[in-house]
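**Entry details**
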Amino acid sequence: MTSSASTIAPRAAPSQDELFPIRATTVQPFEQGKDISFRCWDVSGRFFYCKGDSSNRSTRAIEAVFTSLALELGISTAPWSTIEYSGQTYFGSQDRDLTSSHFRTRDFILSTSKDETGRASPFPGSYLSQVLVYDLFINNPDRSPNNFVLLDGYGSDRLCAIDFADASFKSLTSTDFPVALSNTRQLGRRCREIHGEHLAPALEMVERIEGLPRTVFSRIVNDVRDDWLDEVAKGSLCEIWGSSDFRRRLAHLRTGLTSGDLV
């Protein structure tokens, strides 16, 4: 099956831009996502999947940092907001309340794509390769076609990555990566079969990560609410960026991509 690249664009989306939490006006339980506490609508009719901390993990902070970092690195992500409900705050990822859009997203990711002339399009293969490299970097083992959404954007649909909840702050100083049977690695192999290798964009993402200044990463971390991540934890996390262990991780990532060991 083929799909047209002319109506789906790889544009970036804004991250959180509200000064205060958004109040959930209509709330529904959601049983399918292991990290999702509920889904809701705000007063403007925007739809969100909302996550709180669970299993002794700082899920809200992980999502806030790694979603914002992805955007800083040029990966299109869904807009997110702090959602307030029943006296608590949650990480809210924006989506469409349309079942059909989820089927369309999956079909687009797992279908060969052609441009207006009928030639193979570099998108979404190049975009997906960079998302998957980013997932390897943050040790997110759970990337699947379900972890993308299509959102409105400037006259075309925008393919956005969502759900970084299974990533790890600690992994940024290790050489641990998702195992070969993880959802992330399996999706990577499937995308290579459908869209091609796209090694150059993948290695470009490594360069972007390596070139991101610590001041930018620190700003992302320090923007996280203190009740999601305390000041001591923020300080320790900021020190990781650019450290020798951080650079060693990037070297292992680059080597694994080039050799095919992390495919």
Remarks:
- Residues 26 and 41 are 5 Å apart (CA to CA).
- The mean pLDDT is 89.
